[in-house]
Amino acid sequence: MKLKNASDIRKMIEEDEWMMELLKAAQQLNLPDWWICAGFVRSKIWDVLHDFNERTLLADIDVIFFDPTNTKEEEEKKLEERLKSLTPNIPWSVKNQARMHSINNLPPYSSAEEGIANFPETVTALGVKLDNLNKVILVAPHGIKDVIHLEVRPTPLFLTTTTLREVYEERVRKKDWVATWELLKIFHS
Fold first, then answer.
1. 3-state SS class at 157
2. How many C-beta atoms lie closer than 10 Å to residue 28's C-beta?
3. Rounded distance, CA 33 to CA 114, Å?
């Protein structure tokens, strides 16, 4: 399958029964400004572009949302448990972007999309959710060019300081994506 644009990505996800099941589970939580993001989207794209017949296993399924009224980590754990009750055996990870800015000592975010924009890699800065007709909505603050061209590079934020450049480089090293997706090109900061 050739992926040329955002419409192709949305269609690819809508045709994936497993991905749609997980999106519908997350939708049931009725979280404000929610998305399933990062590897959930990126890995599917890379699997398709590498003509894999089997889905690459994910360490977790990242659900993010934005709620400045309740930034307790315990609330995120409760939401993970609710998701596990809806879809057992899925490694859910739920994070409120209203508190995640503090991980990299950044100013507070104003939305979940801003949180996605500040992920370390452009290819990870992707999110999907469902509209009220169960159609996939895709957010890609840095576009989709890098992910569909199999090019890994830092987001603009992760080029701003030596510390953030090091975070990007360490993630690229630890993730070792090229071991799974050999056509990737890694760009260093």
1. helix
2. 12
3. 11
Q: Which residues neighbour 3 within 8 Å (Cβ) at sequence distance 6 or greater?
A: 9, 12, 45, 48, 49, 148
Strands 127-130 and 136-139: antiparallel
Kindly report, residue by residue over 14-46, the tens digit of the pLDDT.
999 999 999 999 999 999 999 999 999 999 999
Phi, psi of 114 (to 5 degrees): -65, -35
Nearest to 62 by CA among 125, 143, 137, 140: 125
Of 41, 35, 53, 49, which is closest to residue 14 (Cα–Cα)?
A: 41
- Cβ neighbourhood burial of 124 (10 Å; 0-12, 13-18, 19+): buried
Per-residue pLDDT of 120-178, as tens digits, reads 999 999 999 999 999 999 999 999 999 999 999 999 999 999 999 999 999 999 999 99
Q: Alpha-carbon distance 73 to 44, whole Å?
A: 28
What CATH class does 6-143 carry? alpha beta
Domain ranges of the chain: 6-143
Query: How many angstroms separate the Cα of 174 from the Cα of each of 97, 109, 118, 170?
Result: 23, 26, 19, 6
